[in-house]
Amino acid sequence: MTAPAVAGDDVTPAPGPLPGAPRMLTGDRPTGRLHLGHYAGSLANRIRLHRRYESFFIIADLHMLTTKNSPGDIAGIGPHAAGMVLDSLAAGLDPAHSVFYLQSAVPEVAELSLLLSSLVTVPRLQRIPSLKEMAQHAGQREMPLALLGYPVLQAADILAVRAAAVPVGRDNAPHVEVAREMARRFNRRYGAVFTVPALVPADVPVLPGTDGRAKMSKSLGNAIYLSDPPGVVAAKVRRMYTDPARTAAGVPGTVEGNPVFVYHDAFNDQPAEVAELKERYRAGEIGDAEVKERLTAALNRFLDPIRARRAALEADEGLVEELIVSGTERTRREVRRTLADMRAAMGLTAALAGFRRAARARARAGRPRGVTGAGQRGAGCLTLTDDVRDGG
Question: Which residues contact 20 (CB under 8 A, 6 or more apart)?
Fold first, then answer.
């Protein structure tokens, strides 16, 4: 993957999508700063795509609660959310084409998730491998109900804004497939309400951590953050895992699967240099130290404009908070419309509408409100008789 150019100092909004353009939804849990794994796995796709769509970016704090729900975790939602939005804008998202919203401030999504939950089985959810991995990383020996229902809530997020495209990394691809299944099942059973979302895969599905583990992760402490200063990047690269079988610079090394070269392929903007480094490494003509020095230089070339733009955005006090508030208000309006259409399609509005018609007819007939006779325990107070309590 060649790292795309990062937005510079010019913040003049580009023309947006035409009215009626399809929608895109993606986002992250507010657990900390964004790192290179986020960029490779999803953020690069978001930057590439977001001007083509009406783009919604969820700050998924309810999803965070499935594995991180201590008072301290919850207290950190605000600063972490602001930091995530700063990182996203600094990396290249245009604020004029990005709707950022806080998931927990759109309570209608919870009802939508509940209604969707009847369209999927527990065994289907248990087959999603990433849920077990999430539980293990969180130190949970048994899976909480909320974590098992994570894909259902994620489907609700996607379908609530009627997203047509969902750019995600490989670990979340099975979740999007659940959303696609539920959308099709709902539309067949009740009528066409939902867009069936398309998965937009990342070019580099999983970026390994600096310690050589299969995935870069905040919880594993093996991440290089988009906001890391140059010196911190250099220190982390120096400690990076390489080819364990290579005992000296003169020993031919393996490039394939070597995290240092995975990072070169993903972020070095000089492909000729990468090709030369690979050739010399395979021949045992270059040491790990020089390969890492070149990687440090490449990563800092990539991160320099991101860090500069982040500093400029951070200096605009209140900007990020304003974007989150306005985006949340807009999203809630959209979700309310979706929920109303969903309830109408299911027929859930019919019973109450019938009760209201009957109540209005009674009022027009001039009958007193409440219950009279044996059931009355005070003006306008309805008391259930024994046969009603017993279901008789």
Answer: none
150-160 vs 173-190: helix crossing angle, rounded to 10: 60
Paired residues of 225 in beta bridges? 35
Reported as a pLDDT band with limits 50, 70 and 90, residue 17 is low
pLDDT digits (tens, 9 = 90+) for 99-109: 999 999 999 99
**3-state secondary structure at position 384:** coil
Strand order in the sheet with 163-168: 99-102, 54-59, 23-28, 163-168, 198-201
3-class state of residue 222 by DSSP: coil
Q: Within 13 Å of residue 379, how many CA atoms lie on the same side as its CB?
A: 1
Q: How far apart are CA 241 and CA 276, in angstroms?
A: 20
What global pTM score does this model have? 0.84
Say whether pLDDT at 375 is over 80.
no
All domains of the chain in start order, with CATH: 23-208+317-345 (3.40.50.620), 230-305 (1.10.240.10)
Minimal CA–CA distance to 299: which of 249, 235, 204, 255? 235
Q: Partners of 35 in the beta sheet?
A: 225
- Nearest to 102, CA basis, from 72, 52, 63, 132: 63
What's the confidence (pLDDT) of residue 378? 46
